[in-house]
# Entry
Amino acid sequence: MTPRTGKPEPIPPGSTIGILGGGQLGRMLALAAARLGLKTHVYSDESESCAFYVATETTRASFRDQARLAQFARRCNAVTFEFENVPDETVRGLMQHVRVAPGPEPLRIAQDRFLEKSFLQQQGLLTAPFHNVTSEAQAREAFPALGGRAVLKTRRLGYDGKGQRTVKSAEEAARAFVELGGVPSILEGFVEFAFETSVIAARGENGAFAAYDPALNEHEHHILRRSTVPSGLPENKVQEAFAMAHSIAEALNYIGVLGVDLFITRDIGLLVNEIAPRVHNSGHWTLDGCTVSQFEQHIRAVAGWPLGDPVRHSDAVMQNIIGAEAEGWKQLAGQAGLHIYGKRVVRPGRKMGHFTTISPLK
Amino acid sequence: MTPRTGKPEPIPPGSTIGILGGGQLGRMLALAAARLGLKTHVYSDESESCAFYVATETTRASFRDQARLAQFARRCNAVTFEFENVPDETVRGLMQHVRVAPGPEPLRIAQDRFLEKSFLQQQGLLTAPFHNVTSEAQAREAFPALGGRAVLKTRRLGYDGKGQRTVKSAEEAARAFVELGGVPSILEGFVEFAFETSVIAARGENGAFAAYDPALNEHEHHILRRSTVPSGLPENKVQEAFAMAHSIAEALNYIGVLGVDLFITRDIGLLVNEIAPRVHNSGHWTLDGCTVSQFEQHIRAVAGWPLGDPVRHSDAVMQNIIGAEAEGWKQLAGQAGLHIYGKRVVRPGRKMGHFTTISPLK
# Structure
């Protein structure tokens, strides 16, 4: 944990927020920053970055290019990131020049499923049972204690179901380890959950904490299909979920928006699945359901501004537009609450946009 | 009137909307276009243009520079404008290369108070009584019929109370004509109104029409201070105001968002004050009170997309942040529904931002 010393002053309108990563999250962060009168500088290693189109300035360079990073840092008043696979050395390097939030520690933890789950257990939070796996033999040995069904997941770089295999025997576990490239992994007990929810929370420079109502999240082929708010979770569980997110944010001395993915099981209650040190797909509904969206909230925290009220003015259902569905844009164009990310290339499973349907609070 | 021949196809996400003018209206149009996956190209003759910071591409050049305009047009799939003082020849020139909405005719009419009020009367709509004034003598002669109190207004280039003088005698009217530069003007009967409202309406390529609930508008020093929705206008007057806006939009074969400024007098009812062929300050509340804002609605019309539902999810009060008030940004930063335009220079009377407070529908 890097303790912060002294609270930085809020940065004034007209300043520049640097954003590492140029995908849709970076794009929506840039649009939110603009609303508050802040300029943006998007840094991405991909030439086709949809956040470039809305940024004040752009840099296309590698996240390892120290010279370009230093140049970027000097042109920004604060820097944040839109995805958790920014190398943590990149963030540490930037911190020599400019304020960066959230810091490198949440990033380091969220990048590695083993560190992440170990951290959560240290905080006294429930997770699925898991074992570190660095060899076929370890995969085989770990299996029997996990109840007959388990998931092998690479420690790093997994998302949307990539880098994981469900296995039903010790032999399958060993084989999955080889198939996923023999890289450091965890073997996790399979959780039979009733439903999946997430808390999108924010912590500000002054330790203020604010959380949006949790959404009920539905996945298809491991990709988020739909988030519904309210989730139907009973109020005491909502409060429990908020408390979990709050303790995580405090333990990480976190600044910014944080997504906490939770399983609700019939028997043991709330289990933390994973944490995302960034704005999160399951919080996109806040753009249309709240006055202060998760994107604005993140920018507020990063800029040292007071957090906004996360109150919801409407019930909301957010649906993702995935892959070739974007080709139906003429039909989608009639939707209110429509957000299209402006990605040039359609790929299967690629998130191309979303739309949120709101209705009066019930 | 330039009749349109054939409906253009809606332009796909990834296309570029050109915006003439780089102020806050252009900025909020660009942000709305981005939400729909459209790129933007802002063309402005001022180097300090706050819309530049959020546009995909920018051109700084004169509105008379035909070469730069043609170059701009070739890079855009549709063009619109954010202020009514774009020379109408500029728009006519662009139309040779690219689709432009609204067209030059609404612009020509809205640029000239005499043409505007004559057009309104031709549509059978009530306005204040007015006379064309091109000399001191005409100013003197026009005065007596106007009830003892009148306002001399230049025909062109007035806004926020600029280019006008209230006068109480024929002699004052003649003097005002000289003081305002001896330019073509109108002398208008002073209207004693109970309150001022506006209809923000949109007409799409297919003739569809959609109007937001009218706001009650309060001015200070001729500058909009506050818009409140609902306005308190009785339902039959709301419908009458919508019908007026609809007939104006139809008569102009209008494509895009149109602001219609109305006076409500105790005796004669609704009177049209002026029309703005663009998004309008009194519609800023729609950013936080509706799912589809006036800015998105305008972009939808310009891009040939279906209009969005102008339904309001909340009651709303929008307040402008004017001039030096922007220096209080640290206090304002706590506001939800805050929009800061990112203008570098504060000037008295300059619109620097706004904030909208929403509350549940009553």
Q: What stands out?
A: Confidence is low (pLDDT under 50) at residues 1-5 of chain A. Chain A has eleven helices and 17 strands. Chain A has three domains: 16-110, 129-189, 195-360. Chain A touches chain B at residues 10, 12-14, 27, 30-31, 34-39, 52-54, 56, 288, 291-292, 300, 305-306, 308-309, 313-314, 326, 329-330, 333-334, 336-342, 344, 353, 356, 358, 360-361 (CB under 8 Å).
